[in-house]
Design brief:
The structure is a single chain. By secondary structure, this protein is mainly alpha-helical. It contains 15 helices and no strands. Helix 1 runs antiparallel to helix 2, helix 1 runs parallel beside helix 3 and helix 11 runs antiparallel to helix 15.
Length: about 450
Protein backbone atom coordinates (compact mmCIF):
# COMPACT_ATOMS: atom_id res chain seq x y z
CA UNK A 1 0.00 0.00 0.00
CA UNK A 2 2.84 2.37 0.90
CA UNK A 3 4.39 1.66 -2.50
CA UNK A 4 1.19 2.65 -4.26
CA UNK A 5 0.96 6.00 -2.47
CA UNK A 6 4.67 6.63 -3.02
CA UNK A 7 4.31 5.99 -6.74
CA UNK A 8 1.31 8.30 -6.96
CA UNK A 9 3.17 11.07 -5.16
CA UNK A 10 6.15 10.73 -7.51
CA UNK A 11 3.81 10.98 -10.50
CA UNK A 12 2.19 14.15 -9.13
CA UNK A 13 5.60 15.70 -8.45
CA UNK A 14 6.75 14.87 -11.98
CA UNK A 15 3.62 16.40 -13.47
CA UNK A 16 4.06 19.58 -11.41
CA UNK A 17 7.72 19.78 -12.40
CA UNK A 18 6.73 19.53 -16.07
CA UNK A 19 4.17 22.32 -15.64
CA UNK A 20 6.73 24.51 -13.88
CA UNK A 21 9.26 23.94 -16.66
CA UNK A 22 6.66 24.82 -19.28
CA UNK A 23 5.72 28.00 -17.35
CA UNK A 24 9.41 28.96 -17.10
CA UNK A 25 9.86 28.57 -20.88
CA UNK A 26 6.71 30.59 -21.48
CA UNK A 27 7.99 33.38 -19.21
CA UNK A 28 11.32 33.54 -21.06
CA UNK A 29 9.59 33.59 -24.46
CA UNK A 30 7.17 36.29 -23.26
CA UNK A 31 10.08 38.45 -22.10
CA UNK A 32 11.83 38.14 -25.45
CA UNK A 33 8.61 38.91 -27.37
CA UNK A 34 7.75 41.89 -25.15
CA UNK A 35 11.24 43.30 -25.51
CA UNK A 36 10.98 43.01 -29.29
CA UNK A 37 7.50 44.59 -29.23
CA UNK A 38 8.86 47.56 -27.30
CA UNK A 39 11.57 48.03 -29.93
CA UNK A 40 9.11 47.90 -32.84
CA UNK A 41 6.68 50.16 -30.99
CA UNK A 42 9.46 52.69 -30.57
CA UNK A 43 10.10 52.60 -34.31
CA UNK A 44 6.38 53.01 -35.00
CA UNK A 45 6.25 55.94 -32.57
CA UNK A 46 9.14 57.69 -34.30
CA UNK A 47 7.44 57.27 -37.68
CA UNK A 48 4.08 58.41 -36.31
CA UNK A 49 5.62 61.52 -34.71
CA UNK A 50 7.24 62.38 -38.02
CA UNK A 51 3.96 61.90 -39.89
CA UNK A 52 1.40 63.16 -37.37
CA UNK A 53 3.24 65.31 -34.88
CA UNK A 54 3.52 65.06 -31.10
CA UNK A 55 -0.07 65.92 -30.19
CA UNK A 56 -1.63 62.98 -32.04
CA UNK A 57 0.91 60.47 -30.75
CA UNK A 58 0.93 61.40 -27.06
CA UNK A 59 -1.18 58.35 -26.09
CA UNK A 60 1.29 55.94 -27.69
CA UNK A 61 4.19 57.80 -26.04
CA UNK A 62 2.56 57.48 -22.60
CA UNK A 63 1.78 53.80 -23.21
CA UNK A 64 5.35 53.06 -24.25
CA UNK A 65 6.72 54.77 -21.13
CA UNK A 66 4.34 52.77 -18.91
CA UNK A 67 5.28 49.49 -20.57
CA UNK A 68 9.01 50.15 -20.15
CA UNK A 69 8.47 50.98 -16.48
CA UNK A 70 6.48 47.84 -15.69
CA UNK A 71 8.67 45.50 -17.71
CA UNK A 72 11.59 46.42 -15.48
CA UNK A 73 9.76 44.44 -12.81
CA UNK A 74 9.50 41.46 -15.18
CA UNK A 75 13.26 41.51 -15.90
CA UNK A 76 14.03 41.83 -12.19
CA UNK A 77 11.86 38.78 -11.44
CA UNK A 78 13.58 36.85 -14.20
CA UNK A 79 16.96 37.77 -12.72
CA UNK A 80 15.88 36.60 -9.26
CA UNK A 81 14.93 33.23 -10.73
CA UNK A 82 18.47 32.75 -12.07
CA UNK A 83 20.70 34.19 -9.35
CA UNK A 84 22.85 32.17 -6.95
CA UNK A 85 20.27 32.23 -4.13
CA UNK A 86 18.18 29.03 -4.14
CA UNK A 87 14.39 29.46 -4.38
CA UNK A 88 11.46 27.23 -3.63
CA UNK A 89 9.32 25.84 -6.43
CA UNK A 90 6.43 28.01 -5.29
CA UNK A 91 8.55 31.20 -5.49
CA UNK A 92 9.73 30.34 -8.99
CA UNK A 93 6.21 29.50 -10.09
CA UNK A 94 4.81 32.78 -8.75
CA UNK A 95 7.50 34.89 -10.42
CA UNK A 96 7.11 33.18 -13.79
CA UNK A 97 3.34 33.69 -13.70
CA UNK A 98 3.85 37.38 -12.90
CA UNK A 99 6.34 37.73 -15.77
CA UNK A 100 3.84 36.25 -18.23
CA UNK A 101 1.08 38.54 -16.93
CA UNK A 102 3.20 41.69 -17.30
CA UNK A 103 4.37 40.79 -20.79
CA UNK A 104 0.87 40.01 -22.05
CA UNK A 105 -0.42 43.29 -20.62
CA UNK A 106 2.41 45.22 -22.30
CA UNK A 107 1.75 43.71 -25.73
CA UNK A 108 -2.00 44.25 -25.48
CA UNK A 109 -1.57 47.91 -24.51
CA UNK A 110 0.90 48.63 -27.31
CA UNK A 111 -1.31 46.86 -29.85
CA UNK A 112 -4.29 48.96 -28.77
CA UNK A 113 -2.45 52.29 -29.05
CA UNK A 114 -0.69 51.54 -32.34
CA UNK A 115 -3.97 50.33 -33.89
CA UNK A 116 -5.59 53.63 -32.92
CA UNK A 117 -2.94 55.49 -34.93
CA UNK A 118 -3.14 53.19 -37.94
CA UNK A 119 -6.04 55.07 -39.54
CA UNK A 120 -4.38 58.44 -39.03
CA UNK A 121 -1.12 57.19 -40.49
CA UNK A 122 -2.95 55.67 -43.45
CA UNK A 123 -4.69 59.00 -44.01
CA UNK A 124 -1.34 60.77 -44.02
CA UNK A 125 0.00 58.33 -46.57
CA UNK A 126 -3.07 59.00 -48.72
CA UNK A 127 -2.62 62.78 -48.40
CA UNK A 128 -1.48 63.30 -52.04
CA UNK A 129 -4.52 61.42 -53.35
CA UNK A 130 -6.82 63.32 -50.96
CA UNK A 131 -5.44 66.67 -52.12
CA UNK A 132 -6.01 65.76 -55.73
CA UNK A 133 -9.54 64.64 -54.97
CA UNK A 134 -10.27 67.93 -53.22
CA UNK A 135 -9.10 69.84 -56.27
CA UNK A 136 -11.02 67.66 -58.74
CA UNK A 137 -14.19 67.85 -56.62
CA UNK A 138 -13.81 71.62 -56.41
CA UNK A 139 -13.62 71.85 -60.19
CA UNK A 140 -16.62 69.56 -60.64
CA UNK A 141 -18.73 71.44 -58.12
CA UNK A 142 -17.77 74.81 -59.60
CA UNK A 143 -19.38 73.68 -62.84
CA UNK A 144 -22.69 73.26 -60.95
CA UNK A 145 -22.78 76.84 -59.63
CA UNK A 146 -24.41 78.44 -62.72
CA UNK A 147 -27.15 75.82 -62.68
CA UNK A 148 -27.79 76.43 -58.97
CA UNK A 149 -28.12 80.18 -59.53
CA UNK A 150 -30.48 79.57 -62.42
CA UNK A 151 -32.67 77.34 -60.25
CA UNK A 152 -32.85 79.95 -57.49
CA UNK A 153 -33.75 82.69 -59.96
CA UNK A 154 -36.48 80.55 -61.50
CA UNK A 155 -37.93 79.58 -58.12
CA UNK A 156 -37.91 83.23 -57.02
CA UNK A 157 -40.57 83.99 -59.64
CA UNK A 158 -42.86 81.35 -58.17
CA UNK A 159 -42.28 81.26 -54.42
CA UNK A 160 -42.14 83.94 -51.75
CA UNK A 161 -38.86 85.13 -50.31
CA UNK A 162 -39.66 83.47 -46.98
CA UNK A 163 -39.78 80.09 -48.73
CA UNK A 164 -36.42 80.67 -50.46
CA UNK A 165 -34.53 81.78 -47.34
CA UNK A 166 -32.90 78.40 -46.94
CA UNK A 167 -31.42 78.34 -50.46
CA UNK A 168 -31.32 82.01 -51.51
CA UNK A 169 -27.56 82.40 -50.86
CA UNK A 170 -26.56 78.76 -51.36
CA UNK A 171 -24.70 79.35 -54.64
CA UNK A 172 -22.64 82.24 -53.22
CA UNK A 173 -21.85 80.29 -50.07
CA UNK A 174 -20.85 77.26 -52.12
CA UNK A 175 -18.53 79.40 -54.25
CA UNK A 176 -16.79 80.73 -51.15
CA UNK A 177 -16.38 77.23 -49.73
CA UNK A 178 -14.89 75.98 -52.99
CA UNK A 179 -12.29 78.74 -52.87
CA UNK A 180 -11.57 77.91 -49.22
CA UNK A 181 -11.16 74.19 -49.98
CA UNK A 182 -8.80 74.82 -52.88
CA UNK A 183 -6.71 77.14 -50.73
CA UNK A 184 -6.69 74.56 -47.93
CA UNK A 185 -5.35 71.88 -50.26
CA UNK A 186 -2.54 74.22 -51.32
CA UNK A 187 -1.70 75.05 -47.71
CA UNK A 188 -1.64 71.34 -46.81
CA UNK A 189 0.81 70.64 -49.62
CA UNK A 190 3.12 73.48 -48.59
CA UNK A 191 3.04 72.50 -44.90
CA UNK A 192 3.80 68.89 -45.79
CA UNK A 193 6.81 69.96 -47.81
CA UNK A 194 7.99 72.07 -44.86
CA UNK A 195 7.65 69.04 -42.49
CA UNK A 196 4.88 70.82 -40.58
CA UNK A 197 2.72 67.73 -40.58
CA UNK A 198 0.20 68.69 -37.90
CA UNK A 199 -0.71 71.90 -39.74
CA UNK A 200 -0.82 69.99 -43.04
CA UNK A 201 -3.24 67.41 -41.65
CA UNK A 202 -5.50 70.11 -40.20
CA UNK A 203 -5.58 72.08 -43.45
CA UNK A 204 -6.42 68.98 -45.46
CA UNK A 205 -9.21 67.92 -43.09
CA UNK A 206 -10.85 71.37 -43.24
CA UNK A 207 -10.59 71.40 -47.04
CA UNK A 208 -12.26 68.00 -47.23
CA UNK A 209 -15.08 69.13 -44.93
CA UNK A 210 -15.59 72.29 -47.00
CA UNK A 211 -16.01 70.22 -50.17
CA UNK A 212 -18.56 68.04 -48.41
CA UNK A 213 -20.59 71.10 -47.39
CA UNK A 214 -20.51 72.45 -50.95
CA UNK A 215 -22.01 69.23 -52.25
CA UNK A 216 -24.73 69.35 -49.59
CA UNK A 217 -25.60 72.98 -50.42
CA UNK A 218 -25.91 72.39 -54.14
CA UNK A 219 -27.92 69.21 -53.64
CA UNK A 220 -30.29 71.15 -51.35
CA UNK A 221 -30.92 73.71 -54.13
CA UNK A 222 -31.87 70.98 -56.60
CA UNK A 223 -33.95 69.11 -54.00
CA UNK A 224 -35.82 72.26 -52.96
CA UNK A 225 -37.84 72.40 -56.14
CA UNK A 226 -39.00 68.81 -55.67
CA UNK A 227 -39.87 69.39 -52.02
CA UNK A 228 -41.76 72.60 -52.87
CA UNK A 229 -43.84 70.79 -55.49
CA UNK A 230 -44.57 68.03 -53.00
CA UNK A 231 -45.58 70.61 -50.38
CA UNK A 232 -47.96 72.28 -52.87
CA UNK A 233 -49.56 68.96 -53.67
CA UNK A 234 -50.00 68.15 -49.99
CA UNK A 235 -51.32 71.65 -49.35
CA UNK A 236 -54.09 71.14 -51.91
CA UNK A 237 -55.15 67.94 -50.15
CA UNK A 238 -55.14 69.62 -46.72
CA UNK A 239 -57.19 72.54 -48.09
CA UNK A 240 -59.85 70.17 -49.38
CA UNK A 241 -59.84 68.26 -46.09
CA UNK A 242 -60.08 71.47 -44.05
CA UNK A 243 -63.09 72.71 -46.00
CA UNK A 244 -64.78 69.37 -45.40
CA UNK A 245 -63.99 69.64 -41.68
CA UNK A 246 -65.56 73.11 -41.52
CA UNK A 247 -68.76 71.73 -43.06
CA UNK A 248 -68.73 68.80 -40.64
CA UNK A 249 -68.19 71.17 -37.71
CA UNK A 250 -71.71 72.54 -38.28
CA UNK A 251 -73.06 69.26 -36.91
CA UNK A 252 -70.56 69.13 -34.05
CA UNK A 253 -71.50 70.08 -30.47
CA UNK A 254 -71.93 73.85 -30.15
CA UNK A 255 -69.25 74.56 -27.59
CA UNK A 256 -66.83 77.54 -27.50
CA UNK A 257 -63.78 75.41 -28.25
CA UNK A 258 -65.26 74.06 -31.49
CA UNK A 259 -66.44 77.53 -32.56
CA UNK A 260 -63.03 79.05 -31.89
CA UNK A 261 -61.16 76.24 -33.71
CA UNK A 262 -63.50 76.57 -36.70
CA UNK A 263 -62.85 80.31 -36.87
CA UNK A 264 -59.10 79.79 -36.75
CA UNK A 265 -59.24 77.23 -39.57
CA UNK A 266 -61.33 79.61 -41.68
CA UNK A 267 -58.76 82.35 -41.11
CA UNK A 268 -55.95 79.99 -42.13
CA UNK A 269 -57.78 79.18 -45.36
CA UNK A 270 -58.40 82.86 -46.07
CA UNK A 271 -54.72 83.67 -45.53
CA UNK A 272 -53.58 81.36 -48.34
CA UNK A 273 -51.93 83.20 -51.23
CA UNK A 274 -54.15 83.58 -54.30
CA UNK A 275 -53.63 81.13 -57.12
CA UNK A 276 -50.82 82.21 -59.47
CA UNK A 277 -49.11 84.47 -56.91
CA UNK A 278 -45.80 83.88 -55.13
CA UNK A 279 -46.42 81.86 -51.99
CA UNK A 280 -44.63 79.94 -49.26
CA UNK A 281 -46.10 76.41 -49.45
CA UNK A 282 -44.12 75.22 -46.44
CA UNK A 283 -45.39 77.94 -44.08
CA UNK A 284 -48.94 77.71 -45.41
CA UNK A 285 -48.95 73.93 -45.01
CA UNK A 286 -47.70 74.16 -41.43
CA UNK A 287 -50.27 76.83 -40.47
CA UNK A 288 -53.16 74.98 -42.10
CA UNK A 289 -52.21 71.63 -40.59
CA UNK A 290 -52.04 73.18 -37.12
CA UNK A 291 -55.50 74.74 -37.45
CA UNK A 292 -56.96 71.57 -38.97
CA UNK A 293 -55.61 69.42 -36.16
CA UNK A 294 -56.91 71.86 -33.54
CA UNK A 295 -60.43 71.62 -34.97
CA UNK A 296 -60.30 67.82 -35.06
CA UNK A 297 -59.18 67.75 -31.43
CA UNK A 298 -61.88 70.22 -30.35
CA UNK A 299 -64.65 68.20 -32.02
CA UNK A 300 -63.38 64.93 -30.60
CA UNK A 301 -63.19 66.45 -27.11
CA UNK A 302 -66.69 67.90 -27.38
CA UNK A 303 -68.15 64.58 -28.53
CA UNK A 304 -66.39 62.77 -25.73
CA UNK A 305 -67.76 65.24 -23.22
CA UNK A 306 -71.33 64.60 -24.42
CA UNK A 307 -70.87 60.86 -23.82
CA UNK A 308 -68.97 61.42 -20.58
CA UNK A 309 -70.42 64.47 -18.76
CA UNK A 310 -67.95 66.49 -16.77
CA UNK A 311 -68.40 66.08 -13.01
CA UNK A 312 -69.11 69.24 -11.09
CA UNK A 313 -66.73 70.70 -8.56
CA UNK A 314 -69.30 69.90 -5.85
CA UNK A 315 -69.26 66.21 -6.81
CA UNK A 316 -65.48 66.10 -6.66
CA UNK A 317 -65.46 67.96 -3.35
CA UNK A 318 -68.01 65.53 -1.90
CA UNK A 319 -65.81 62.55 -2.89
CA UNK A 320 -62.82 64.34 -1.46
CA UNK A 321 -64.61 64.98 1.85
CA UNK A 322 -65.50 61.29 2.06
CA UNK A 323 -61.90 60.38 1.35
CA UNK A 324 -60.74 62.77 4.11
CA UNK A 325 -63.13 61.13 6.59
CA UNK A 326 -61.78 57.69 5.79
CA UNK A 327 -58.22 58.98 5.96
CA UNK A 328 -58.94 60.45 9.38
CA UNK A 329 -60.31 57.17 10.75
CA UNK A 330 -57.39 55.19 9.35
CA UNK A 331 -54.90 57.76 10.66
CA UNK A 332 -56.30 57.58 14.16
CA UNK A 333 -56.23 53.80 14.27
CA UNK A 334 -52.72 53.46 12.85
CA UNK A 335 -51.20 56.19 15.02
CA UNK A 336 -52.86 54.74 18.12
CA UNK A 337 -51.40 51.26 17.51
CA UNK A 338 -48.11 52.18 15.86
CA UNK A 339 -46.18 49.17 17.06
CA UNK A 340 -48.82 46.68 15.93
CA UNK A 341 -49.43 47.85 12.35
CA UNK A 342 -47.69 45.97 9.53
CA UNK A 343 -46.12 47.25 6.32
CA UNK A 344 -49.15 46.58 4.08
CA UNK A 345 -51.46 48.87 6.01
CA UNK A 346 -48.84 51.62 6.40
CA UNK A 347 -47.95 51.45 2.67
CA UNK A 348 -51.56 51.87 1.56
CA UNK A 349 -52.10 54.71 4.01
CA UNK A 350 -48.95 56.51 2.83
CA UNK A 351 -50.01 56.12 -0.81
CA UNK A 352 -53.47 57.52 0.00
CA UNK A 353 -51.95 60.58 1.66
CA UNK A 354 -49.60 61.12 -1.27
CA UNK A 355 -52.46 61.04 -3.79
CA UNK A 356 -54.55 63.35 -1.62
CA UNK A 357 -52.03 66.20 -1.95
CA UNK A 358 -52.50 66.69 -5.73
CA UNK A 359 -56.30 66.53 -5.91
CA UNK A 360 -57.16 70.20 -5.10
CA UNK A 361 -55.00 71.45 -7.97
CA UNK A 362 -56.83 69.15 -10.42
CA UNK A 363 -60.37 70.20 -9.51
CA UNK A 364 -60.61 73.62 -11.17
CA UNK A 365 -59.41 72.70 -14.66
CA UNK A 366 -62.02 70.88 -16.74
CA UNK A 367 -59.32 68.82 -18.43
CA UNK A 368 -58.22 67.32 -15.10
CA UNK A 369 -61.45 67.29 -13.10
CA UNK A 370 -62.23 63.68 -13.99
CA UNK A 371 -58.75 62.78 -12.82
CA UNK A 372 -59.45 64.60 -9.56
CA UNK A 373 -62.67 62.62 -9.05
CA UNK A 374 -61.01 59.27 -9.72
CA UNK A 375 -58.12 60.31 -7.48
CA UNK A 376 -60.46 61.12 -4.60
CA UNK A 377 -62.18 57.76 -4.95
CA UNK A 378 -58.82 56.05 -5.07
CA UNK A 379 -57.77 57.80 -1.87
CA UNK A 380 -60.94 56.58 -0.15
CA UNK A 381 -60.35 53.03 -1.37
CA UNK A 382 -56.74 53.00 -0.18
CA UNK A 383 -57.74 54.43 3.19
CA UNK A 384 -60.41 51.74 3.63
CA UNK A 385 -57.93 49.01 2.68
CA UNK A 386 -55.39 50.43 5.11
CA UNK A 387 -58.04 50.43 7.86
CA UNK A 388 -59.00 46.82 7.20
CA UNK A 389 -55.37 45.68 7.13
CA UNK A 390 -54.59 47.66 10.29
CA UNK A 391 -57.50 46.04 12.16
CA UNK A 392 -56.32 42.61 10.99
CA UNK A 393 -52.84 43.35 12.33
CA UNK A 394 -54.25 44.52 15.67
CA UNK A 395 -56.40 41.41 16.02
CA UNK A 396 -53.42 39.19 15.22
CA UNK A 397 -51.19 40.96 17.73
CA UNK A 398 -53.59 40.69 20.70
CA UNK A 399 -52.94 37.75 23.09
CA UNK A 400 -55.46 34.95 22.70
CA UNK A 401 -56.22 34.89 26.41
CA UNK A 402 -57.02 38.61 26.37
CA UNK A 403 -59.46 38.00 23.52
CA UNK A 404 -61.13 35.21 25.55
CA UNK A 405 -61.40 37.49 28.60
CA UNK A 406 -62.99 40.20 26.48
CA UNK A 407 -65.43 37.66 25.08
CA UNK A 408 -66.37 36.31 28.56
CA UNK A 409 -66.73 39.77 30.02
CA UNK A 410 -69.22 40.93 27.44
CA UNK A 411 -71.23 37.75 27.34
CA UNK A 412 -72.50 35.52 24.61
CA UNK A 413 -69.00 34.66 23.38
CA UNK A 414 -68.67 38.01 21.58
CA UNK A 415 -65.20 39.45 21.16
CA UNK A 416 -65.85 42.68 23.01
CA UNK A 417 -66.26 46.41 22.63
CA UNK A 418 -63.22 46.94 20.39
CA UNK A 419 -64.70 44.76 17.65
CA UNK A 420 -68.09 46.48 17.99
CA UNK A 421 -66.45 49.89 17.64
CA UNK A 422 -64.52 48.83 14.54
CA UNK A 423 -67.66 47.22 13.12
CA UNK A 424 -69.44 50.55 13.55
CA UNK A 425 -66.57 52.39 11.89
CA UNK A 426 -66.48 50.00 8.94
CA UNK A 427 -70.24 50.17 8.63
CA UNK A 428 -70.07 53.95 8.56
CA UNK A 429 -67.48 53.82 5.82
CA UNK A 430 -69.62 51.50 3.73
CA UNK A 431 -72.65 53.78 4.18
CA UNK A 432 -70.46 56.77 3.27
CA UNK A 433 -69.39 55.04 0.06
CA UNK A 434 -73.01 54.28 -0.85
CA UNK A 435 -74.06 57.86 -0.22
CA UNK A 436 -71.07 59.05 -2.23
CA UNK A 437 -72.27 56.98 -5.17
CA UNK A 438 -75.80 58.46 -4.84
CA UNK A 439 -74.54 62.03 -4.86
CA UNK A 440 -72.23 61.33 -7.82
Amino acid sequence: MAGFWGKRKREEEAAQAAQDADLARKAEQALVAADERIRTAGDELAFAEAELGLSLTKDLTAALDAVRTHLREAFQLHQLNHDEIPDTDEELRTRDARIVQLCEWAEDLLDEKTSALAESIAKVRRAPQVREKVRSDAERLSARLPQAREIVERLATRYADSALNQIHNSADEAEQLIAFATHGADVAERRRAAKQNEEANLALETATEAIRRVGALLDAVEDFEIEALRAESTLAEVVADSRGDIIAARNAPKVPAVTEATTELEKALESLAPSGSRNDPFAELTRLRTANTALDDAIAKAQYRIQNPLPSIAQVQHSLDDADRQLGVARGLISGHRGWIGADARTRFAEAERLRIDIPELMADEDTREQALSGARRVAQLAAEALQLAQRDIDSARPQQQQQDWGGGWGGGRRGGGGDVMGGIMGGLVIGSILDGIFD
